[in-house]
Amino acid sequence: MYRDISVKLVDVSKSIGTRVLFTGINLVVNAGQCLVITGPNGSGKSTLLKIIAGLNQPTTGAIQIISNNKQFDAEERRACLGLISPEIILYADLTGRENILFFTRLRKIRCNEHQIEGYCQKVGLAVDKDQLVRTYSTGMRQRLKFALMLAIQPLLWLLDEPSSNLDADGKRLIAQMISNGLEQNAAIIIATNEPWEAEHADYKIELA
What we know:
Helix content is 35%, strand content 27%. The chain is of the alpha/beta class. The protein has one domain (6-206): Rossmann fold, CATH 3.40.50. The chain has seven helices and nine strands, in the order βββαββαβαααβαβαβ. GO terms for molecular function: ATP binding. It comes from Pelosinus baikalensis. Residues 7-208 form the ABC transporter domain.
């Protein structure tokens, strides 16, 4: 797709009522780079991530996603990003495999059974891929979200607390996936307070 993708935050501010969450954020994140957003609960980490995803609007400023000197419209933005968040809902009455098929078809991405097997294998769900997601633990659901990320192969990864509900093996898996994504030239933006996740950062925004 767009191998030289970049995300530009231009004077981004967000207020809720009289409360200012953040103001005057200016930054460019290029392909192969990682931005980490940190701060206490309620500081606006998830809100900033949603603004970048186009799910929320800034009070002032703009998010520009650019490739080949072309700024993406809303549809192109959705096509180039993958979002992992506690608010992303999987279909409980579908299996893990069926969830991957459903979401890839929404993106008009071809994904065959062999590929799904490989994605599930990489995240440790090969044995469980044909179980209903309602039977999954919270950690297994988080792993399935990363299997979806592998299937979609977005150029922009937006990760909200990506190691949430994962054990030590799961956290090592996510660290390796983030490293691999950067090596494959994805732009990655992470909202987290985990020190080990912040180690991936080329840039860091600390919200108050």
